[in-house]
Design a protein that fits this description.
5-stranded antiparallel beta sheet; 7 helices; 36% strand; alpha+beta; 14 strands
Length: 263
């Protein structure tokens, strides 16, 4: 297609070290949560590159921790280090789990590129995996290279916030639409055209998401997006939802400084 019509050819590389570091950060949070839930006292947990180092003052506690981590977090392999009262447990991500993380990062990026290219409206684009961490993108007929590059390389951030339920009546919404938004809240129009007042306080960001997959709701059988949170995110989500039964959450997507309520 490029030979006949011209266009642009991009070779993109997925930032695999960042994907693995994010996975290690998430697993470190999981280790923290598991040991806290089982009342196992450690002397500190740190992440060193992609290893998680847990410090202990005695061998018995280290053994307890080892059993819990081995049972609850099978993606980690464990090794002993240190001596005396400076004992350590070094957890590293198993090679097969690293491979899964890398495959997911690649798949996620390819999906995102598909969505972005649909936005460009290119006929017959080529988006192909090359090797273990690269993606080839060919856009026939595209003349504006800079615009294509900007759209493909754009970063988006996700935020979860609470809906300001107290200001969702007709009068408050009408005032908000005119620019009179209550302090600590913001006015948005949802994708389906519904006006919405959302609190400024961010409950969670996309940083806390470790996975997002399309699927179906078990109860209604409607299409759904299944989100997986890291340990810290899960704890925040648990606490916020427990305190907010019957209230609504908004998922916002920010791109190029502009936010929209997705759902």
């Amino acid at each position: 297609g490029l030979d006949l019509r011209g266009g642009v050819h991009f070779l993109l590389q997925v930032d695999m070290p960042a994907a693995l570091a994010k996975r290690a950060e998430s697993l470190a949070g999981d280790v923290r949560s598991q040991l806290r839930d089982k009342n196992v006292r450690h002397a500190g947990i740190t992440r060193e590159v992609n290893n998680i180092v847990i410090r202990f003052r005695d061998a018995e506690t280290r053994e307890k921790a080892r059993a819990i981590i081995a049972e609850q977090l099978p993606d980690l392999q464990l090794a002993d280090a240190g001596s005396g009262n400076e004992l350590r447990l070094v957890a590293s991500i198993r090679p097969e789990a690293q491979k899964r993380t890398q495959e997911f990062a690649l798949k996620q990026n390819i999906q995102t590129l598909h969505n972005r290219i649909n936005e460009l409206g290119v006929a017959e684009p080529v988006i192909q995996q090359q090797g273990s961490d690269r993606v080839v993108v060919q856009l026939p007929g595209v003349q504006d290279t800079a615009k294509a590059k900007e759209i493909l390389g754009r970063t988006a951030t996700l935020e979860i916030r609470m809906v300001d339920e107290e200001n969702m009546n007709g009068a408050a919404l009408a005032a908000a639409a005119q620019g009179q938004v209550p302090f600590g809240s913001e006015y948005y129009v949802e994708r389906n055209g519904q006006p919405l007042v959302v609190k400024k306080q961010v409950v969670l960001t996309g940083e806390r998401l470790t996975d997002a997959q399309p699927g179906f709701d078990n109860q209604t059988q409607e299409p759904a997006v299944h989100l997986t949170l890291d340990a810290a995110g899960a704890r925040i989500f648990r606490d916020v939802t427990r305190e907010s039964v019957g209230k609504r959450m908004a998922i916002l997507l920010f791109e190029k400084g502009k936010g929209e309520v997705v759902t």
